[in-house]
């Protein structure tokens, strides 16, 4: 992956973030046991993690790191840092600790996790760095008191373009200037996203043109859906919720799967989750009626139930950063597409042969057919009957 191959190994390759970098260096210079930790925060892909990695590399520090979102318990945190924080480095090198994505630490059950991090900050003989997307997450309120906050801004379009250009040149990819500019703009300050987009469109190519940007179309729609979910889940206005999906270029049914996937990511109280699913289930009934009766006027009830119904299921807004997820159902449908096509083909053949509807065959014959099919003789028989 380009983002790994071109990860800055030294601060020389680290772009932009001048203020953050200066603040970080100042913090490091003044750090002594008992000092505050540095909390680097900002949008994904702005260089929080790679700044610490590049710095450690330049200074020949031993970097001990852990991603807090994979962390389930106090015990795990103590296992990684507890010992290392109290003793001197084995190689007599300096050490630096990185606890990445602390806002990803799991909620309630992990109250102990945050406390363990605070203990490490207080006791550590080595500087501790934390990162987060949203440092104002209520979960981090107490932790914040032990941190010096260092904000990371969006990476400017110009710097993103420069980085993309550099990668193209090293990879021997010919490029249209305008393509790199478009990629940089659409990434909205997220350099990781821009580099990933470049890799997507350049895969297996010697030259990239504006036309290649089309393959990113789907990603664009996904991004719209993420924005829509943010509005839908955070607002308490009926109108705002129902309008949230108005500009999303996806089938209503697919929008419904997106909402379904993320209800339990956003809501934490069981009653809220239950109310949200209740609303979604009603929306789904309307969906079935719309299709069965071909009665599109019902669409607005489906829409209001799945948007406002789900939105108003909460008691109040969650002031947290939620990582919304791509619906598992849609991923499954995409991956099983070929198989479903094959099945459809078979159903068509059978319906001709048996002279009845595909629907009847699917429900009444297919289960038996799947058993019979295992028999070689039957297979031959079926093929001879259905070949043109
Ligand atoms: N300021 C930067 N300078 C150079 N590369 C960067 C910078 N910010 C991000 N990147 C690129 O984007 C990728 C993701 O950066 P990372 O530090 O992991 O982001 P974050 O931790 O802020 O989400 C890196 O692999 C690197 O290639
Ligand atoms: Mg990171």
Report a brief summary of the structure.
This protein has 388 residues and is α/β, with parallel strands linked by helices.
Q: Would you kindly provide a written description of the structure presented here, covering whatever features stand out?
A:
Strand 3, helix 5 and strand 4 form a beta-alpha-beta unit. The strands form 2 sheets. The chain has a 5-stranded parallel β-sheet, with helices on both faces. The protein is built from 18 helices and 7 strands. The chain has 4 domains: 150 residues, Rossmann fold (3-Layer(aba) Sandwich), CATH 3.40.50.300; 52 residues, Orthogonal Bundle (Helicase, Ruva Protein, domain 3); 115 residues; 50 residues, no CATH class. The mean pLDDT is 87. It is globular and about 85 Å long. The two termini are 48 Å apart. It has 388 residues and is of the alpha/beta class. It binds adenosine-5'-diphosphate and magnesium ion. The site of magnesium ion has 4 residues, from helix 3.
List the helices and strands and how they pair.
Layout: H1 2-5, H2 18-30, E1 37-41, H3 48-58, E2 62-67, H4 74-86, E3 95-100, H5 111-123, E4 128-132, H6 141-144, E5 147-151, H7 157-171, E6 174-175, H8 177-186, H9 191-202, E7 207-208, H10 217-234, H11 238-243, H12 252-266, H13 270-293, H14 299-311, H15 328-335, H16 337-354, H17 358-372, H18 376-386
Parallel strand pairs: 1-4, 1-5, 2-3, 3-4, 6-7
Helix pairs in contact: 4-5, 7-8, 8-9, 12-13, 12-14, 13-14, 16-17
The structure holds adenosine-5'-diphosphate and magnesium ion.
